[in-house]
Write a structure and sequence with these properties.
The complex is a heterodimer of chains A (about 220) and B (about 220). Chain A has nine helices and no strands. Chain A is mostly helical and about 220 residues long. Chain A has one domain: MetI-like fold (Orthogonal Bundle). In chain A, helix 2 packs antiparallel against helix 8, helix 3 packs across helix 5 and helix 8 runs antiparallel to helix 9. Chain A is elongated. With about 220 residues, chain B is mostly helical. Chain B has one domain: MetI-like (MetI-like fold). Chain B contains nine helices and no strands. In chain B, helix 5 crosses helix 7 and helix 7 runs antiparallel to helix 9. The chains are: A mainly alpha (about 220), B mainly alpha (about 220). Chains A and B meet through helix 1, helix 3, helix 4, helix 5 and helix 7 of A and helix 1, helix 3, helix 4, helix 7 and helix 8 of B.
């Protein structure tokens, strides 16, 4: 294995110049998809955790079943069921929508569990004190319980957000035009893995800062044991 | 309703493809059985390297862990799958897939073990060392038993993630459960095989997910 061939295969300047605009376009789609998933997934997860905190037996049971099932199912299976199976009953959606919906559903399940654990971790006396000062149930939740709960859930939540945004790469399986889609179609078109190197590099550019921030969050807001 | 059942859970199709799906399920289990123990062992290795607290080494360990945490496993798999032949390395498909998942999850297991070892009070190690235990004995008999107990929920939940990860192997045509289900779906123009695969994944992983939830809630309750 000589160095020249390695460079020619993986770091081919000519091929990189030809394919990098595609990768940049994919970078935009990956970023957009990731942000959309985080926004809807976290919102839905928080809503589910709040709904569960009202302790209605039937509703809580449904939420637990939902959260368990979507934590147990591989995200790729959820994407494929939404994209390939639902059209058989007349529900079709674009690849982007299917990936966004599937990943949001998965993130919502994990976020619900994390927020719920956070809500449980706030001592009961907090709620009782807030209620006895005359705050309503909802006010207690919004102004007293959630601010404390969210703070302690930040480290596990950031980890989960990183994991799920990396899942946007799964969109390539249903041909969402994100980074890895362009990278692997470019690699097979050029007969050279350089576009894959570019794609890998694009992911590192996107995620290394995120991982670094998560390390900071972890030490800053760590669970006090 | 009847039509939905015809398309989503068609008994005739389930019956016809059951052996094929089961074979895929077997490969999923086999792949997991290869990747999980190797991942746990190499993760522990990574964490032990860190516990030596040599500055340069620690920097390398963190770089390794963060690199693979930032790198989507599918990208890693496609990179190895498409790139290794160009290096003149023609690994069997099983080995390529296992290598990609191993690199990815050794970083995750490593980070879990590292956090667990670091979270123990330093007095534990100091006390053990001052009773005359060697470094190795301290690790084996004092640090690890406590660390592993604290980490059990994280270790199990990461294992669930690894098993879910094996579905990515279908992208490079490795015949595990999802791959077989999609092939069956393409043959029958019917969603049943994919739904059946989802049910099998649930059957395999739901008990573990429940277990993690129980362990986590218990650790919050005692806090």
């Amino acid at each position: 294995m000589d160095l020249h061939r390695l460079v020619y295969s993986f770091f081919n300047g000519e091929i990189a110049a030809h394919y990098w605009p595609d990768i940049a376009r994919g970078f935009g789609v990956t970023t957009l998809l990731g942000l959309a998933v985080i926004a809807t997934g976290l919102a839905a997860g928080l809503a589910l955790a709040v709904a569960r905190s009202f302790h209605l037996r039937a509703a809580s049971l449904l939420i637990v079943i939902y959260a368990d099932a979507l934590r147990a199912l591989p995200p790729l299976v959820v994407i494929i069921v939404l994209f390939f199976a639902f059209p058989y009953i007349g529900v079709s959606m674009s690849a982007f929508t299917a990936t966004w919906l599937a990943l949001s559903m998965v993130l919502a399940a994990f976020a619900e569990e994390i927020f719920w654990a956070g809500i449980l971790a706030v001592p009961r006396g907090q709620t009782e004190a807030a209620r006895s000062t005359g705050l309503s149930r909802l006010q207690t939740l919004v102004h007293v319980v959630l601010p404390q709960a969210v703070r302690i859930t930040l480290p596990p939540l950031t980890n989960r957000m990183i994991a799920i945004t990396k899942g946007t790469a799964l969109g390539s399986v249903v041909a969402v035009h994100e980074i890895i889609y362009y990278a692997s179609s470019g690699a097979s078109e050029a007969g050279n893995p350089t576009p894959l190197t570019l794609g890998a590099f694009a992911y590192l550019v996107l995620f290394i800062p995120v991982v670094a921030v998560s390390r900071w969050v972890e030490t800053r807001f760590a669970w006090k044991r | 309703m009847d039509q939905i059942l015809q398309v989503f859970l068609n008994p005739a199709i389930v019956e016809r493809f059951w052996p094929f799906l089961l074979r895929g399920f077997g490969m999923t289990v086999l792949l997991s059985a290869a990747v999980v123990p190797l991942g746990v062992a190499s993760g522990l290795g990574v964490a032990l390297l860190y516990s030596l607290h040599r500055r340069g080494l620690n920097w390398l360990v963190i770089a390794y862990v963060d690199f693979f945490r930032a790198f989507p496993p599918l990208v890693l798999l496609l990179f190895l799958y498409g790139g290794l032949p160009f290096l003149g390395l023609d690994l069997p498909l099983f080995a390529t897939v296992a290598l990609a998942f191993l690199l990815n999850n050794s970083a995750y297991y490593g980070e879990i073990f590292r956090a667990g070892i670091e979270s123990l009070p330093p007095g534990q190690a100091e006390a053990a060392r001052s009773t005359g235990l060697t470094r190795w004995q301290t690790l084996r008999w004092v640090i690890l038993p406590q660390a592993v107990r604290n980490l059990l929920p994280d270790l199990i939940s990461n294992t669930v993630e690894v098993v879910k990860l094996t579905t990515l192997a279908s992208v490079v045509g490795f015949s595990e459960l999802l791959n077989n289900a999609r092939n069956a779906q393409a043959l029958t123009y019917n969603a049943t095989p994919v739904v059946a695969a989802a049910v099998l994944y649930l059957a395999l992983l739901w008990p573990l997910v429940r277990l993690v939830s129980r362990l986590e809630h218990r650790s919050i309750a005692v806090r």
